[in-house]
Structure prediction request, 386 residues.
Amino acid sequence: MPRRASVVIVGGGVIGTSIAFHLAEAGVRDVVLLERGALGSGSTCKAAGGVRAQFSDELNVLIGARSLDAYARFGERPGQEIGLRRVGHLFLLSEPADVAAFTRGVALQNALGVESRLVDPAEARRLSPLITTEGLLAAVHSPHDGHCTPQSVVLGYAGAARRLGARLYTGVTVRDLELRGDEVRTVVTDRGRVTADTVVCAAGAWSGAVGAMAGVDLPVTPLRRQMLCTGPMRSLRELAEPLPFTVDFGTSFSFHQEGPGLLIGMSDPMQEPGFDTSYSPRWLPRLGAAMARRAPALLDVGLGGGWAGLYEMSPDGNAVLGRSVAPANFVYATGFSGHGFLQAPAVGEIVRDLCLGRAPFVDVGPLHAGRFAPGAAAPRPESHVV
Prediction:
């Protein structure tokens, strides 16, 4: 372990490795990343891999769109094949209030240059032939969204960061952050102490504990989210067009093609917050009911293995992103509420600029952790949370 660094990043998922790459690319020397497990082993490599710019909040639209552009060029910069498939995202809407919210979202997205549109149920079924339209009021489709492979993204960022001089350490646990005056000065680990000019928290669902070490309240709640793969489906090979990443918004039941089968996910409204990542079949009855209502053909498909990961939920569904007032050299990028993977390229740029004292391409002041303090302005909830 080095004795000092210009920037120490705590967390080696897609957010942390993106930050390391962007800092090293900008010429920052002595970038050190610390990850207690393997790179991407927290939430990133258990993610569905969806990428999109369909959001209700202007900041999320802009960050998502910029990240989509970066993923499209990932093979050249930083240089890694990530299996990007721009098959589109299709949100299925069964409630009048959701139709109204997504209609407003489409207007905002179009005004910001994102191609999305409201479609009727018949068009939705043409786009995603596995669904039924009973009870469906409308859908929203954006053709340039899609999905890619989270593990490959982490590998690409980590490899490029190392080639540019950043040092990435795995199997290192951060035990404390020592303050001197109004700055974090030392990162204490189980493998030694590192003096830092700037410390970045990119610890995902575990960010609350890291923030507490610096005396900063990062209101991030871990929430288990389960997924599974189906067996091979011959019908997928017979589709005339690629299957979009399809989301039944009212239930959060989602699916997209993964190899010869589908990757399926759905949230559980009864899930208690916590760090449990064990897979449990208790969600299968709810999943089966959602499938029977919206995609009954999937009930006859064999199910493969399942797994669980963690969302890092913020109170309003928006990222917690910024530089703290005190300590002044503590920067955080967390609380993405299921959107961290898709926003990682742009967030790497933003944090790079915050560390260098430059203005990012968007003003992330509204995402500051202080927005949740008593007496602060009302939060700006993101409604397109899956």
In short: The longest helix spans residues 340-356. The chain has a mean pLDDT of 96. The first strand starts at residue 4 and ends at 10.
